[in-house]
Amino acid sequence: MTKHPLHRDGAAAAQGNAGPPVTEEQPAVPFWQVLVLGLATLLFGVAVLTWPAATLRTIGVLVGIWLLVVGAARIVGAFLSGRAIGRQVLSAAIGIIFVVGGVACLRNVAKGVLVLAFIIAFAWILSGVAELTIALQAPTAARAWLIILAIVSIAIGFVFLFWPGLSLTTIVIMTGISGVIIGIGEAAFAFQLRRLAAAP
């Protein structure tokens, strides 16, 4: 009587039908990095709005400090996040540009309203492009948040670029409001990332 190893065939069939192992989606960006960016931007916006009589030099210093903080956060996040090499390079490159811009503002390079407006616009647009690039590779649950933040940031940057006859008062108001809006959005996205990471 011939014995048939049915149990082995069944196990092999079960393994064949199981398919590839399911891997968890990695967060698009680290929770702590997004939270630092959001809080720094929010505090920056609040500081600008609560300083209505600020001079050009004062606004330049505030912008410089903000760029240094968010630039440093992006650089550190690039080396500690464990993301794909492309995202790490992008984060580090933008962080370095922000740090250079922050140092320039602190050294009083932005001596004119238009120069300061260009620096702020460039920072918003660059941030938006970075978020949009990351969104294209991000998990589905986080993609919508990143795309919204990217579009808002880029739109604000172009407003700074193409607003005719910007005055210092207009820059102060626009910078403060945009900082508060983007900061709240980034902080909210950070906690959304944390909830997604904690979800089973």
From TrEMBL:
GO CC aspect terms: plasma membrane
Annotated keywords: Membrane, Transmembrane, Transmembrane helix
Transmembrane domains' residue ranges: 31-51, 58-79, 85-106, 113-136, 142-163, 170-191
Region (Disordered): 1-24
Keyword Disulfide bond: no
Pfam families: DUF308 (PF03729)
InterPro entries: Acid_resist_chaperone_HdeD, DUF308_memb
Superkingdom per UniProt: Bacteria
The protein's name: HdeD family acid-resistance protein
